[in-house]
Structures are given as C-alpha cells and as structure tokens.
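### Sample
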Amino acid sequence: MAVEHKYVYDFAEGNRDLKDLLGGKGANLAEMTNLGLPVPPGFTITTEACRAYLATGREPDGLADQIAAHLAALEQAMGKRLGDPADPLLVSVRSGAKFSMPGMMETVLNVGLNDRSVAGLAQQADGNQRFAWDSYRRLIQMFGKTVCEVPGEEFEHALDEAKRAKGTTNDLDLDADDLRGLVDAYKKVFRKHTGRDFPQEPREQLDLAVRAVFDSWHAERAVLYRRQERIPADLGTAVNVCAMVFGNLGSDSGTGVAFTRDPASGAQGIYGDYLANAQGEDVVAGIRNTVPLQELERIDKRSYDELLDIMARLERHYLDLCDIEFTIERGKLWMLQTRVGKRTAAAAFVIAGQLVDEGLIDLDEAVHRVTGAQLAQLMFPRFQLDHDIQPVAKGIGASPGAAFGKVVFTSARAVELAGEGEKVILVRRETNPDDLHGMIAAQGILTSRGGKTSHAAVVARGMGKTCVSGADEIEVNVPAKRFTVAGRTVVEGDVVSIDGTTGKVYLGEVPVTPSEVVQYFEGTLDPEATDDALVHAVHRIMTHADQRRRLAVRTNADTGADAARARRFGAQGIGLCRTEHMFLGDRRELVERLILARTDQERENALAALLPLQRADFVDIFREMDGLPVTVRLIDPPLHEFLPPLEQLAVNVAVAQERGEDVAQEEALLAAVRRMHEENPMLGLRGVRLGLVIPGLFAMQVRAITEAAVECARAGVAARPEIMVPLVGAVQELETVRAEAEKIIAEVVGDAGVEVLIGTMIEVPRAALTAGQIAEAAQFFSFGTNDLTQMGWGFSRDDVEGAFFWRYLELGIFGISPFESIDRDGVGRLVRIAAEEGRAARPDLKLGVCGEHGGDPESVHFFHDVGLDYVSCSPFRVPVARLEAARAAIETNGSDSR
C-alpha cells in the first residue's frame, strides 16, 4: 500500500530550516513553538501542495483528509469546534512563501464565523456584541475581496457610509447595532458581485480561503514583486492555518509589530508600532495611526516586559534583527510571526557591524549579510539643506533617501509619467498591494497615514525606495488630485521633495549633496575622524571584503580624471579604456578624414595628426594608474558614429544645388558616405575589421600606447599597458594584428623595460567557441558581455529594450534583462567554454570581463565561479564589485559562523 504524501505539518513538527517546504512564516512559527514561546496552535499546508494545485488546478489527492485530521487536532487542543454556534473556533488563513513578500499575497481572518456562531463569539467575549459583529464584518470584507474578487472599494464605501451616518470618522465609534447593519450591507455587496449568499459552512470557508491563498501566488502584484526582488517564480506559497486570537476585544487588547533594532538606521533600542483594540491587518494597512511601541509599557506593562524578553531571546536565537508580529488578547501576549526583518541599506551595514562587536557573528558573516545593491543605495546623494529651507510637513522616516519629483495620486499616473521620463512622488493616504506598480515607478512614496510597519514602509524598504509615511498634517484628496498642508494646496504635477531619513517634506526641488559613503570612498572623509556609525561599518566591512575576495576589480575609464576617481574607489587597474571615446568632439573631423581618405597621403596625414593626441591621452591615464594594468581597446566604433548622417547630407546637397551653390566638395563627401554606408553597422566594418581594412589605423594606436608607456617609464611612472583587439572572430585576425603590433612595440620599447601585453575581447560567439585556437595568439581574454549578449541572443540592445522586453518580463521569458544580469545558461555558457578552453591551451591566460555585467552583483558571483581573474566596471560600481567578489568567495569557501 502506497504511503500518502505528507502535505500538512503541525507547527510542532517543523523548524526554521524547512523554509522551502513550510515557507518562511510557517517555518518560523514552528521554530517559535519549539522554543516554547506563546504561539497559537495551528498547522501549515506545504509549498508542495501549492505547486501541485497550481499545476493541475485542483487540490492534490489526500490534502483534504490531511487538513481535516489536523483541524480535528486543533479543535481538540483548543476545546472548540470550527463554527460551533455556542463556542466557535475561528482560524486565520495566511500565506507564507519562502521569501518574505509583504502584502503581496492573501490573508483571511476570522474564518469559521457565520450567522449562528456570531452570537457564540459574543458569549465567549462576555457578551461583547460589538467585538463579535466587528469580527464578522471583517471576515465578509476579507473573504469577499480575497476569495471572490469583490472590489474592495465597495466594502470601504459601505464602511464610510456607516461612519457618516454615525457622524464620526473613526470606526471605533461604531457600536454593535451599527456593525450589525454593516454586516447586512456587506452581505448585499457580496451577493451583488458573486450571485450567491456569503457561505455559512465553516469548512467551505476554510477550503475556499486556502485555494485563494494558493491562487494569489500568481496574482499580478505578487508576480511583479517577485520580478522586482528576483524571487524564483516556481517556489509556490505555503498556507498557515492558525487559531485566532483577538486584539479587538477592547482597551486591554491590541496588536502590534516590533523590531529588535531600528530597521531604518540599525540603532539599538525599542522600535515598532502598537494599536489598541485592533486586529493585525489594521497596523500594516495604515488605516489608523499607531502609537510607538514604548507606549505599550504604560498601557500594559506586564505584556510589554514579556515582549521585550521574547524579542531579546529571538534576536539571540536568529543572530539578527527580528521583525515580530504580536497580539494581546485581554492581557495575554501571543506571538503571530517572526522573521529576519527587512531593513534599509544603512541599517544592514550598521547592524552587521554591531553583531560582530557583540560576538554573535564574525566578519565573514557580516560581509555575507550585506549586498552590493545595498551599498549602491548608500552612494546616492542626500538633500543639501540651507537654513531658509523649511519643511511643510513631517512624517515618519520609513525608508531613507532623498527623492524629489512631480506629485501624482494614483499608481497608474505614476507609471504613465515615469514612462515619459518624469520623476514622480506617489502621494496616497495609505498604499495597498495594488499600488506596487506605482511604487516601483516612483522616486519616492509619501503617505498621510501609517507608521514604520505600514505597507508603504515595509515594501519601500525592501525595494530601496525613499518613503515618508504617517505625515498626518497632509490632507490627501485623491479624486481632486491635490493635497493641502499648512494652508497651501499642492496639485498633481507640482514638485515636492521628501527625506526618508528625517521624515520631512519640502515643497519644490531641494538640491542634493554627495553621501557620506561616497565621501569616504573618495578619501575626503576619514573613518577614524568621524563618529558616523554607517561610515565606520562600511569601512570595516569593505576592509575585510578586500582581504577575502579572489577576483580583482578594475574599472572602465577613458580619461585621467575617471581613472583617478576609480582608483580612489579601490579600482586595481583599468579593464577597458575605449579609444573611440577619445575621437569625439574636436577630433571627429580627423577620424572622418581618415575613413574617407582616397589616397595613401591623405590617410597618412590624418594618422600623423592623430598620433600625438592619442599619445597624450595615454600618458595622462598611465600616470593616474601608476603601477596598475591598463587594458586599452583599439578603436571599435560602428562607422556611422564618425560619418555625417547620409539622409541629412543628401538633403543639404540637394538644397545647395537648388540654390545654385558650388557643392563639389559636398557631393564628393556624399558619394564617399554612400560608399561606406551600412544597413547594419553594429555587425559591419568595425573593430578588428576596420583595423585590417584601413592601413595604419591600429599601427598608429599601438605606437601611441607604447610611446606613452616608454615616456612614463623614463619619468619614473610604472606603465603596464595591455592592448586589446576588439571583435575578433577568428584567430587569423588576431595573428595579423599581433604580428604588426609586435614589430612596432619592439621598435619603440628598445631598452626601456616596458612590457606590453596583447590580447583580445571575446564578444563574438565564434570567438568563444574557438577560444582554444585564439588563446594561442592571445596573452589575455576580456569578455565583452554587451556584444556577446547581443550576438548570442540575436537582438540589438538599443532597439529591443523598449520594444518588447517589457512583454518578455511580463510573460516570465526573462526574469531580468540579460543586459542587466548575465544569462548564465546561454551567454554564460559561452563565457565558461571560452575560459576553460582558453586556459587549457594557455594556462597563464589572464581572464577578465569588461561589459556592464562586471558591476552587476549577481553576475560577479558567476564570474567568480567561472574562474575569471578580474571584473571591470564603471567607477561608481567599483565598491559594489569589490563587496560582491568577497561575498562570492565567502559563499564558495564557507564562513565559521554560518
């Protein structure tokens, strides 16, 4: 007889290591249960059940019976039956994926309540009729919206109408009779949109709620959030069924969220929000402003002291900042959830440093716990405030940063304007999960309600978006597209600035100043001379990161100024110096003359004029990189970048002819441009092909590089040039260029003692597939992943990102643009093949990458795994690459405290 697959686990059966199976929430509820903390009893339906349901459209065999068995055990533990008219057990049904997705999937509270058991619930609460009817109206509202897709605003309108009839704006002023009437109104809304009465059978409610949670894995907002946070789409969600405990039983009850450290700054202390006489969704929804957690000491000291003790215990157990949800039911504290808390980038670095000081983790683990993406956030500028710039409002600094933009009041408008290139600030009373599109599009989020644990705050912190919440001085009028504050009216399109650190709101655009972290990297802020906790933490972690990483980090730089800045940021050389950038501006005419030359003399004259200019360029760069390698890519532009546009030139000639002007010179230029015109210049006469077709072009550049290196060497500057031949697809191309280059190098270097390496860029798929042959003629490879991606996928970056990438992302064909993060399976495989076959042919072959992927955190890990020697990226991404290279090394070799 086959053994039935286990789809349901009691809380006492799991632990925190089972997140893949039980989801993060279920695994942590199990962990707290096993720690002996006050967790209401319940059970978890696994992610395997969810995946089976989503694959077939029906529950897997055996699931219904397993739920029934665990429900019976829960009823026995609580001494109540689900939906019992006299003494009902009510349960919550909550999602819980492996990775936290706050507000993105569904929750239904008070499941099991119906027309008969509402009286029994009131009897449980010592006759508290208001509590019972409030719980029932919440069930109908949540069930209707979540399970049956009834528009949420219909319920909100009914609630607003009930409050207007009562002459109040606070739902706590509604009494039992008001709420009984509201239940009737909600039932009518439910029937209007579903064609049926609200289900009265408790088990039907439970089963439908479970399926709704499963289905919410594919809800639009959940898909969008996973894409934004790079969460795999095939994980599924667990479902947690938990005995209800009630925070809405009166003034001695309530609900809250607590953090063991400040998730915004990392500072140690007591942080969180508490809301008396409320259920948990009221806190995160931001529909009523909370009080600081410290107020709980005055309201209920016994529960407060117990909570602090549990918070300390959980932090020691998880060795990290913990985010905790709790409910107090008539003075009894219940723990509803814990997880390693989301935090801002600044808090991540500060907390990691604190935990090292406290002996809870080592420096390897500290490096592992911060990310390059967080470090990049810390390098954004902040507001530069003069004394005469005064805020018009102040809320809660929920997610740090300095953001300004045009005010918009709907997510749709935010997406629309952002798509037109505008910076926008999304202003709402409070956000909800349906606002995710607008939050992603906006520079920052401003709400008039909510606290540090509201939906806006939690989601913004996770995305690294600036957010100010709970600015209750602001009166938001969404239909009128305006808000009023301090006697002033701000309409859609007006510019505001928000400070997510201080919570201050300013009218107009406030100027910005570089962050302290950038000042530290640039060497203008001494970490030993400041008491800034963030700078200290960044310095400490980056110092250890540099000791732990194997990958070197170079920069992409074309000028001495860029090279100098990158070196201050920690660059260990230049991995890509684009010489075509040196030919723009005033030199463009010389290149044009070179390309269009009809005689050898014309060509030689143009090259002679370019040589000293190129030599001076390289002297400047070698001086800044004294002692560090500089990889110079020989000229690699599509020809059209240096020629006059064909269409415009033809029009100019035609107009001049019409006027009877002498156009002989223009006609000659037009004929030459037509002769050189290409339908697809990115795949035409460029790179090595251009160097082979135009005699003397590469020779001039090789001479300029070598003469500059010799000049620097004789001046005491250690120049280490590496000449890179672009767009090679066959070893014969490289051999031809190398033979000519070596003659020039030997002639110029003489006894100066300068070594010049010659290598190639691997950016053509054929080069990757014949890397063993090419390595015979190359001293180094540098992977040009931009072109390798274009040619590997067969599309042009300039054309396709706006044309159809959005649809590919929407359909899940891409999890992320392959130009942003390396396509490991396709383009990455070409890199791996070239690295392995190149090293097999030449064991001392140096391997690097110089495309945009060199500064992408995920891609850096791949390049470490493949065995490259270095990555190269733009100057501002150098610190990011340094950190991620260390994280990759630690993940490969392990850490003592992990």
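The CA atoms of residues 615 and 704 lie 4 Å apart. This sample (Pyruvate, phosphate dikinase) is used throughout the tutorial notebook.
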